[in-house]
Design brief:
Helix 12 links the parallel strand 9 and strand 10. By secondary structure, this protein is an alpha/beta fold. The chain is built from 16 helices and 12 strands. Helix 2 packs parallel to helix 15 and helix 4 runs parallel beside helix 5. A 4-stranded parallel sheet has the order 2-1-3-4, sandwiched between helices. A 4-stranded parallel sheet has the order 6-5-7-8, sandwiched between helices.
């Protein structure tokens, strides 16, 4: 590739199936700068599965779903962590690395689930259901986590709920995740009314139309989807579980009922699988770009801070989850 550095040209081989060659030069200056800045700052980039391929496959050091990023963040030895994801993920990385600098490239990278509940809401739930443990999805603020007993992710929610050894739990804030987990366990689950703005838009009719248009289609759904969508799917699981399913089962034709970039990122590793891509984009994830990752490293912005009176209690809820 003329005018492109050898390192950027080599990286293109990872993503050539999902990024057209004509688009690649747009990314290369930022990629080269980010690789240099990571060395200079002793920094690592953690990227969620919903990040675009040029971030996920070309500049990230650690990738995965919320659970994987939380676990791997505990072992990061760098001085600086850049979280290519949304704000609650950056807070979780900070909780587990209080002595490190954690940067979020765009403070506007939020989450509809995190916005659906406040610490006061959690305290009111405790008053309404005294003695019932509160299991809080990691897609929440540190302040909400601090009011909780234990956190969970979509990948370990059932195990967390059953680990408590009680007949009833409160599960916040994703109503559909709570309902989908309730269908898998004998534990009674009291749900909140929060929804993910990406996953709540999928419908059973979407799946039926896709099956009609693409014979032999295997449908994988995220458990933040409504229960009737999960019921229509062939498999439901976290983003990591969906990726593992594709790698293990290797369906000839598959659709992932989740955020847009997930299919691109999984497709890079499985060029023999045909991916059908109904696209529900997360506007918050897409606020993270190569350009603002570069700026974050250049200017050391925006550092994540958590009030000391919250951090200890929130960290305990996350650590309890990681111990399950």
């Amino acid at each position: 590739m003329s005018g492109i550095s050898p390192s950027a040209a080599a990286l293109y081989s990872r993503v050539e199936k999902v990024i057209p060659a004509i688009e690649w030069p747009v990314f290369t200056d930022d990629i080269d700068a980010i690789l240099r800045l990571k060395r200079e700052r002793n920094a690592v980039i953690l990227a969620h599965n919903y990040q675009t391929p040029e971030i996920f496959h070309c500049v990230a050091d650690i990738v995965g779903d919320s659970l994987a990023l939380a676990r791997k963040a505990m072992d990061v030895e760098a001085d600086v962590i850049v979280l290519a994801g949304v704000h609650f993920m950056a807070e979780t990385a900070k909780l587990l690395n209080p002595g490190k600098t954690v940067l979020i490239p765009d403070m506007g990278a939020g989450c509809s689930l995190a916005d659906s509940i406040t610490p006061d809401d959690v305290r009111l739930m405790r008053q309404r259901y005294p003695g019932v443990p509160i299991v809080t999805y990691v897609n929440t603020s540190a302040a909400v986590k601090a009011e909780s007993d234990i956190c969970c992710t979509s990948g370990n929610a059932k195990a967390v709920v059953e680990s408590l050894g009680v007949p009833r739990v409160i599960m916040l804030p994703d109503e559909y995740l709570a309902q989908n987990i309730a269908a898998q366990t004998d534990v009674e689950i009291i749900a909140w009314k929060g929804h993910c703005e990406v996953h709540e838009r999928f419908t059973p009719e979407d799946i039926r139309e896709l099956r009609a248009a693409h014979p032999g289609l295997t449908v994988l759904a995220h458990p933040e989807c409504p229960p009737d969508v999960v019921d229509e799917a062939d498999f439901a699981g976290s983003t990591a579980a969906m990726s593992d399913y594709v790698g293990t089962v290797k369906p000839a034709r598959v659709v992932l009922m989740t955020e847009c970039s997930m299919s691109d990122n999984v497709a890079v590793d499985h060029p023999d699988v045909e991916f059908i891509r109904p696209c529900n984009l997360c506007p918050h994830m897409k606020r993270i770009t190569l350009a603002n990752i570069r700026t974050a490293l250049e200017e050391m912005r925006h550092p994540v801070t958590i009030e000391p009176e919250l951090s200890g209690r929130a960290r305990l809820a996350v650590e309890r989850m990681l111990a399950v």
